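Suppose a colleague, Dr. K., hands you the sequence of a protein chain of 129 amino acids and asks what its three-dimensional shape might be. Before reaching for any lab equipment, you can write down a predicted structure in token form. Begin with the sequence itself:
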Amino acid sequence: MTTDEQVEQWLRDIQFTSPAQCPLVQDLRTLVRQLAPDARERVMYGGLLYELGTAFCGIFPYKGHVSVEFSRGCDLEDAHGQLEGSGKWRRHVKLHSTDDIVTKHLETYLLQAYKVASAGVFVPGIKPQ
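The predicted structure, expressed as tokens, is then:
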């Protein structure tokens, strides 16, 4: 099965396993693909992972929300106070509705994550310019 077929199968599965989250997942997928058209999309860890050589974000549906995870969230500026998590690297934003995409400024975080991945700078504590 190719990556595209795996993604399509995952999307069909989400319609059954997380039907309430399906529209939000679709909107997030569209947004990521618009902002990062050269990113590779694949199914991993139960969600959709986006990579530019290395993973920079992922979309993960849960029962009550959808989480957008940032692999190098520690390198993102959190001007809107939406990033959650206190681990060494990762941060996430929890979304409960499609309105949260705008109210939680998700595009800003996605663009930053894409920029970090595009720069290829992954040195702890050093933020790409």
